[in-house]
Amino acid sequence: MPTPTPFPELLARLRTGDEGAVREFVGTYEPFIRRAIRRRSAHGPRHAVADSDDLCQSVLGSFLIRVAAGEYDLDGHSDLERLIVTIVRNKVAALARREAGKPRSHPRMRLFESGEDPSGDSLEDPARVVAARDLLAAVLRALAPADRALLEHRQAGRTWDAIAAIVGETAVALRQRLSRATRAAAVELGLEDADEQ
Hints:
By secondary structure, the protein is mainly α. About 65% of the residues lie in helices and about 5% in strands.
């Protein structure tokens, strides 16, 4: 079994969209995401959630897009796990709002049986890593050229202050601009709802 990459290095590599880092992240955190989805869904309204694969992919996509944009300052695994739980909570709540009033037989909804684990052997499926990588590429294509340049600066490891010096705007304004742009791209790609926190 390979030695896990130290957290700061893994985060830095995820920011660049490194496929090996994405593979390690998915392999390490997908089970945690699925458990968080099951726990959150079990206590949510009507105990119903969308297909677990869809929610898991949405959480992975949202995280990878936002980490690439430099939105998260994480000090370790516990920060990351708290962030994942927050993303899951927001996605399940957004789904509950969207699905409110729809009959339980709606095709995107299903009930979790006690102890059910719909994850199957998906961790061994390389399609997970390819899908995550493709989501990052799709976000890049969806960004305006100026916003794509900001994301590329972040992926190159530049701080917001360094980017501000290059671009000639304030670091806060640039960070907010890229955050809005990546959020709009995530909504456009169906990874997030417009009303999601």
